[in-house]
Design brief:
Length: 668
């Protein structure tokens, strides 16, 4: 059996997203693939584990690919699961090592203080910089700021967003800090798991290890089963963000730590190190992880939980590989300087990249999926690398080394002795003041919300309060305006007796608004004033957040109440695309062949757009009375028509959204 080095320990400052790089910064520690003597290992920190910085680099790189090119790297979200596995392993193994050391016993208070010292300074810096930038670049990013800022600072972002997810208007602009959900899950893990582990360690007897493995295995299986049970296209966010439904990756890392922390016996360090098959862990894990990044989209039902489970297992194989085989070629590759650099800064990179991408997309509007869009996003990522380096070097490392009190003491000394400290003081005060002023002056509502509320005030609500489903109302409102009299009236074809205001002459060309009903989600309700201007007398069956299953109910009820007219404008799919094309067929068939139907396709950065639009195009070909409104092409040619989320039209885009329907009406 290959001898195992005895310096395989984690660092006290390790966390699931960023490694203790104080030691790693000096890490020129492999010579020709062979670890140097123990004296050099001490320079790295007695608890350094080879290869893990490189694994963090892979994890954060997958997340970057997913956010920059989601239609190419559809499964890059599994990078977060990689972080979870690393975190579960490192934290558990470190605690186990601490509990075995009588000279330095483990302290929960000390552990939690280190977590705060490691994670909070970079997070506070992020908020102090990004809040004023948002106020200048696009103030609507700060709508609902208490939810984002308080959720971030309390590490409850995931649960805050779960419980607030039904509020559409906060989704009308991109969330500036949405990536912090996974940081929240990690911090909740740091809070909950160590006390549980300490309780389990109090169990005596030779079966303790098996009992601990069984408890953690039950947690993993329970979380996996809960995700599989609750998952549906309507609530993928719930199961993805939930700590309860998404902790199996953490649990898998814990299981590996329990094995590696046991010196001998079954499922122990000795057992793992003696297995000949461990050489296959790295290739299987790496190939499997890459395949998931490229092939498994976030819209697939397979993903919840099986895709995420496979991502966690592949991550587990990679972690086990570098732990068990510290001198192997794969581990040496993970120790290359660029991998170590990215891994040690991965926490800062993860924090900064998403807000900077949001800012860049607002400042430089580009069409989704184009080379220009890719270039803008890559530029934002490059800037985030630079800021992560500055944050690491001048904020994270000094505070981790000196502590919060020590850092303030050093700052006070610099203020007294030179201009550098005074400049730091002025900069800090300016950032705090700018953030406070920006939050105080932040708008309370988006322009889209104001637009919908204005229409509601003028003409009554777009949807009433009864007949709710999934928190969404399905009551229909008809604007009771007389239809214009038409002198030349053609005889209707089929049974049109139940169609209000029916006029056969209005079945070709641009119709009168009294014969038009617009049915849909946020794109219809948000552009309603534009439709009302062009089609006087139009009635709306529209409300934000609706999906195609809601459309079936809305249309069936509207038909029963006789509120759907002969020319129907139909727009759904903004929130989840077409996850079941039979729902679209049900709506079209229910409306019947006596109506002229304009079916909008969709445009957004979401991964479901292409597949959904293919369904719309096929259905429009199958029905002679259904006409495709190609909003995708218009928005792609004119990204300046869209708001910050690259989905909803701005004020200029609202009229373009209506004009494309006019064009289709005139040609049908």
């Amino acid at each position: 059996m290959r001898p195992l080095p005895d310096f395989n320990h984690t660092s006290d400052a390790d966390n699931g997203i960023s490694k203790d790089a104080t030691a790693s910064e000096e890490a020129s520690h492999l010579a020709d693939g062979v670890p140097r003597p123990r004296e050099d290992a001490r320079k790295l920190g007695s608890s350094y584990l080879f290869g893990l910085d490189g694994l963090r680099a892979i994890a954060v790189f997958a997340v970057l690919l997913y956010h920059v090119a989601p239609n190419l790297f559809v499964g890059g979200y599994v990078g977060v699961d990689f972080f979870f596995v690393i975190s579960g392993f490192l934290i558990t193994y470190r605690i186990l090592q601490k509990t075995k050391n009588p000279d330095s016993p483990f302290s929960l208070k000390e552990f939690w203080l280190r977590r705060v010292r490691r994670l909070m300074p970079a997070l506070v810096l992020l908020i102090l910089v990004c809040v004023p930038l948002a106020a200048v670049i696009y103030p609507e990013l700060l709508v609902g700021w208490p939810r984002q800022v308080v959720g971030a600072l309390t590490y409850l972002t995931n649960w805050v967003e779960i419980f607030h997810g039904s509020n559409y208007f906060d989704q009308a602009t991109p969330m500036l800090l949405k990536n912090l959900w996974s940081v929240a899950v990690e911090e909740q893990f740091y809070l909950i798991w160590p006390p549980i582990l300490l309780l389990l360690l109090k169990i005596r007897g030779r079966h303790r290890h098996g009992l601990m493995m069984g408890v953690v295995g039950a947690i993993a299986l329970g979380s996996l089963a809960l995700m599989g049970t609750l998952a549906s296209p309507e609530n993928y966010t719930r199961v993805y963000y939930g700590t309860d439904t998404h902790c199996f990756g953490l649990a898998l890392g814990i299981l590996l730590a329990l094995m590696w922390g046991k010196e001998s016996g079954p499922l122990s360090r000795q057992w793992l190190g003696s297995q000949r098959w461990t050489w296959v862990l790295a290739p299987i894990g790496l190939v499997g992880f890459a395949a998931l990044v490229c092939l498994v989209p976030d819209t697939s039902s397979f993903t919840y939980p099986f895709g995420l489970l496979l991502g966690s297992l592949c991550s587990l194989f990679l972690v086990a590989s570098v732990v068990v085989r510290p001198t192997a070629r794969f581990t040496r590759t993970m120790e290359l300087a660029p991998m170590r650099w990215m891994g040690t800064r991965s926490y800062g990179i993860y924090l900064w990249h998403w807000p900077l991408i949001v800012f860049a997309r607002i400042l430089v509007p580009t069409a989704v999926g184009t080379l220009e869009s890719l270039g803008v996003d890559i530029a934002a990522v490059i800037v985030s690398l630079g800021i992560a380096e500055l944050s690491y070097r001048y904020v994270e490392e000094p505070i981790r080394r000196d502590g919060i009190k020590g850092s303030f003491a050093r700052l006070g000394e610099r203020i007294r002795t030179g201009w550098v400290g005074r400049l730091q003081l002025v900069t800090g005060v300016a950032l705090v003041a700018a953030a406070v002023v920006s939050l105080v002056q932040a708008p309370s509502k988006t322009q889209l919300q104001l637009q919908v509320e204005s229409l509601q005030a003028e003409e009554g609500p777009l949807a009433g309060e009864d007949g709710t489903r999934n928190g969404l109302s399905t009551q229909l409102v008809v604007m009771d305006r007389p239809a214009p009299q038409n002198e030349e009236r053609e005889e209707p074809h089929g049974d049109t007796s139940k169609i209000p205001n029916y006029d056969a002459a209005q079945m070709t060309g641009i119709p009168s608004g009294s014969t038009v009903t617009a049915i849909g989600d946020s794109l219809i309700s948000g552009t309603s004033s534009g439709f009302s201007t062009q089609f006087g007398g139009i009635n709306f069956l529209a409300k934000p957040i609706r999906q195609w299953d809601d459309a079936v109910e809305v249309v069936n009820k509207g038909l029963a109440e006789g509120t759907i007219r002969q020319n129907v404008i139909l727009d759904f799919g903004t929130n989840a695309g077409v996850w079941d094309e039979n729902l679209v067929y049900q709506v079209i068939d229910a409306l019947g062949p006596e109506r002229r139907i304009l079916l909008y396709n969709i445009y957004s950065p979401s991964t479901f757009v292409d597949d959904s639009n293919a369904v719309y195009a096929r259905i429009a070909e199958e029905y002679p009375n259904v006409h495709l409104v190609d909003w995708w092409s218009v928005a792609r040619e004119h990204p300046e028509y869209l708001g910050a989320d690259r989905t909803h039209p701005n004020m200029t885009g609202m009229y373009a959204f209506v004009d494309v329907a006019l064009e289709v009406f005139s040609e049908s």
